[in-house]
Design brief:
51 residues, mainly alpha, 3 helices
Length: 51
């Protein structure tokens, strides 16, 4: 579930000076190809409505 392009993109864009990717190149390639997005259940809407 966490092996998504958006997670990889977030990690890459948050790097300040240098980015070192450590891992299996096949997994990195899978993440690049995996554009699936899942609905996140953060509870934010509930928290905002009950302020």
């Amino acid at each position: 579930m966490l092996l998504t392009r958006t997670l990889l993109y977030t990690a890459m864009t948050r790097a300040k000076k240098i980015l070192i990717l450590i891992g299996n190149p096949n997994i990195i390639e899978f993440m690049i190809q995996n554009a699936d997005s899942k609905k996140r259940n953060t509870g934010l809407e509930f928290k905002l409505k009950n302020i």
